[in-house]
Amino acid sequence: MPEPAPDLTLLFSPRSIAVVGASTNVDSAGHDYVRSMREFGFAGPVYPINPKADEVAGYRAYPALEAVPGEVDLVISCIPSAGVLELIEQCKARRVRFLHLFTGRFSETGDAAAAALEREIEARAGAAGVRILGPNGMGVYHPAGGVSFRPDLPGDRGGVAMISQSGNNAVEVIARGHARGRALRHR
């Protein structure tokens, strides 16, 4: 009997999001992910995780994932690859179901040690019950749910869905679709 399809609802429509590696540097991905949730009107709590900041993009910042007061459905990782194994343990402790790894520098580098780290991350995440999107991926774009990987993308809510391995191709399709009146949606 085939295994049932996983429930990805909380990946595409999370009720709360934590950005680990959130940054006050407006030119960083760690800032863009947090700012995107504000720009797109994400209705749930957004928890920037940065031990050196009090706030990021208008949201109160927390020193660690364990300090977040509420449940977290989706964690977005903007930290170096060396910290991801520990992040998986934190996600396990918080019962986070989805971890999006914007983090890169794994097997795509061709480095054997980086590829081994990626395999270890996959194994630990699987054992912890944490599903991973990535690594080295832009993430979810679901304007109707207030979720985007960039704050400068159009917020139209449309009837076309897509999956892209390439972040650049995804941005192009989103922009060209918007220009032609064909906005995207996640399902």
Question: Helices, strands, pairings?
Answer:
Elements: H1 9-12, E1 17-20, H2 29-39, E2 46-49, E3 55-56, E4 59-60, E5 74-77, H3 84-94, E6 98-101, H4 112-128, E7 131-133, H5 167-179
Parallel strand pairs: 1-2, 1-5, 5-6, 6-7
Antiparallel strand pairs: 3-4
Helix pairs in contact: 3-4
Q: Briefly, what is this?
A:
The protein is of the alpha/beta class. It has helices at 9-12, 29-39, 84-94, 112-128, 167-179, and strands spanning 17-20, 46-49, 55-56, 59-60, 74-77, 98-101, 131-133.
Q: What does this protein structure show overall?
A:
With 187 residues, the protein is an alpha/beta fold. The protein has one domain (9-153): NAD(P)-binding Rossmann-like Domain (Rossmann fold). Helices cover 30% and strands 12% of the residues. The strands form two sheets. A five-stranded parallel β-sheet has the order 2-1-5-6-7, sandwiched between helices. The chain has a two-stranded antiparallel sheet with strand order 3-4. The longest helix has 17 residues, at 112-128. The radius of gyration is 16 Å and the shape is globular. The relative contact order is 0.16. The mean pLDDT is 92.
Order of helices and strands: HEHEEEEHEHEH
Please identify which CATH superfamily we are dealing with.
NAD(P)-binding Rossmann-like Domain
Share in β-strands: 5-15%
What is the CA-atom radius of gyration, in angstroms? 16 Å
Ranges with pLDDT <50 over ≥5 residues? none
Number of helices: 5
Strand order of the largest sheet: 2-1-5-6-7
Tell me the distance between the termini: 26 Å
What is the second-level CATH architecture? 3-Layer(aba) Sandwich
Whole-number total of structural domains: 1
